[in-house]
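Re: weekly structure request thread

Next one in the queue (271 aa):
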Amino acid sequence: MTAYYAQDYLDLETLAEIWPELGPDVLILGRGSNILFQDGIRELSIVVWEKNDHPIVIKEVEDKVVALVDAGMSLPGLLRWCAGHGFSGTERMAGIPGSVGGAIAMNAGSYGVEAGDILSSVTVWTPESGIMELETDGLNFGYRTFKITSAPGPFIVLKACFIFEKDDPWAVRSRIKEFYNRKKSAQPILENTAGCVFKNPDGFDPAGFLLEQAGFRGKTKGGVCFSDKHANFLVNKGNGSSQAALELITEAREAVLRIFGASLELEVRVV
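Done, posted below.
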């Protein structure tokens, strides 16, 4: 496995030159919070965008602000910045790990708010086209998906402009704490997980409820278990393997399909 860490636009120029040498198996990674790596050795090239300058306000209109945020910033770090400045919009994402770029690439969301809801533009880099700044009409956000209509191939999210509402810093901080505590009480966010295993299927109850009804809450195999707190999270108890996790995933999908007729689609990325 090889890794390339880009921190500025000069690094991207170098990356464009060496891209053909990276091989067919390239993984563009944020902080890896939704990745399940398979066991064994693979010829894999990992590319990470690490630029993480402080966000800056670039526009203010009445009660709203537009802030430019580097994709390498952590999502919890962005929430802290918003709380300190009294900018509202991200509070419901409290408890979601990973980077801002990863949250955009997955259209991460919680309690009815998704990353795409508060974006005005995104700057991306592709091996073919280089750097592109795209308004929201050039972006396609879906449930845990994000695509660029003009660039179907691989891309790196470099930065994004978010639209926030001005508010009292104490009120923003209070809401962040409220949603974090709600998530902590319902999900194993302090344990070793890769986030939700499955997307919620259309036309059915949420995946966690289906898994619980199918008997998978707390089910364990080889050091990996479906969480006792929320059945749609796999927890590594310290000695788990990818093989055990994948076997549990297969068993769960088969059981939910057999019992409820629902086909569960992975939200976690298996690499």
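The radius of gyration is 19 Å. Helices lie at 9-18, 75-85, 100-105, 169-186, 207-213, 242-260.
Next request, please.
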